[in-house]
Amino acid sequence: MSDEIYMRLALAQAHAAAAASEVPVGAVVVRRGEVIATGRNAPVEGHDPTAHAEMAALRGAAQALGNYRLDDCELFVTLEPCAMCSGAMLHARLKRVVFGAPDPKTGAAGSVINLFANPQLNHQTQLHGGVLADECGAMLQAFFQQRRGVQRQETKMNYPLRDDALRTPDSVFDGLPGYPWLPNYISDLPALGGLRMHYLDEAGQGDKGGSGGLTFLCLHGNPAWSYLYRKMMPVFLAAGHRVVAPDLIGFGKSDKPKKDSFHSFTRHRQILLELVEQLDIKNVVLVVQDWGGLLGLTLPMAAPQRYRGLLVMNTALGTGDVPLSPGFMAWREMCAKNPEFDVARLFARGNPQMSAEECAAYNAPFPDKGHRAALRAFPAMVPEFKDSDGAEISREARSFWRERWSGQTLMAIGAQDPVLGEPVMRGLQALIRGSGEPMVLPQAGHFVQEHGEQVAQNAVLHFRA
User: Fold this and answer.
1) Tens of pLDDT, residues 203-213
2) Residues designated as active site
3) In the 8-state DSSP scheme, what is residue 119?
4) What is the pTM of this model?
5) CB under 8 Å to 315, separation ≥6 — which residues?
6) What does the pLDDT read at residue 123?
7) Residue 301, beta-bridge partner list
8) Which residues pair with 272 in a beta bridge?
């Protein structure tokens, strides 16, 4: 295998570090063509100044071999090693060290000093730099540009809070697992009336593989928020695409009106329409699930030229002339009887693979009863009758998808969903012109995005065709 192949494995570790809000540096140790250890930066997470990617990889390799001497091993790292890591590499007696991007501030392999070229040391390790240097450097550059943008962004985030709304403290969102992206806020949409709306807006690194410059517009449902897309976003971004993921008003980092009566189908739809126009989002793949679909499926007919594709997961159209599913009616009844239900517990029950910290992240936006108006209001907002708010526009959307839709469609179904599972989704499939056979995830429930990496990978290939 070539140096570039091993460096790409190290880049995968760097991506993992970035997802954990660490400086994106990754490393792998190879022995006779076999990867025996990997490492990523983790000093912040571990409160450990020695937890560099190279150190983690060296420790893993030593444990794998049962020997702190790594004479026949090569280490690949995305950034030129510092003095600490270089010293450890020499002490381990590595055969060779290969790095990606140079580090002009702390690099100890030629940029500031070159410990590997010191003839007084009793071991000489071969050194080779510059492998995939541009790609390694671009990832680091993007990370630090984001960090530098925090202060600039904070100056734009001092939106006044309306008297009839609450704002979840920013501190509760610190350190959420797998959610490293910087916030964006907007408050000047007419339908917002001065409320502050949060959204993620991330651009991938280049247009890889002829992606066509897609924008994945990811809409969440109730009681979720943009955190729901944390497993799908890295796949879209790695393929060079843009991702926009808003938090509906009342959810996530967006402002939360105190009164349940604020919330209506028409108001939330109008906010989304205005957001798309304000951000001038084009070449859109609409990604929807739950309320993200109830609202989102009514958007493309207002500006069909903006939309290229649809990635639709467990959701429905609320047309008012088709009975709501028994599963949904049971969910609505549960919400009415238990308005303070535990959101984290809900996610844990349907997603046993999630960690306790991930489940708790879904509770973060709702620290007390006052912040939960949207959670109380949304179940009753699903259009049930022909004259319900949103029913008429949903019937118009049904006609659009059946008769006018000309884009590509990919459907993914969480088979374990008792509310909007396969029977409901098969009915929706029949309404969408050109919709092919869906991918069914037997292990997934209502929140398909919690198994979203596989779905996102399929979507990148599907919408590239």
Assistant:
1) 876 544 334 58
2) 290, 417, 446
3) T
4) 0.68
5) 221, 288, 289, 290, 291, 292, 293, 294, 297, 420, 425, 428
6) 86
7) none
8) none
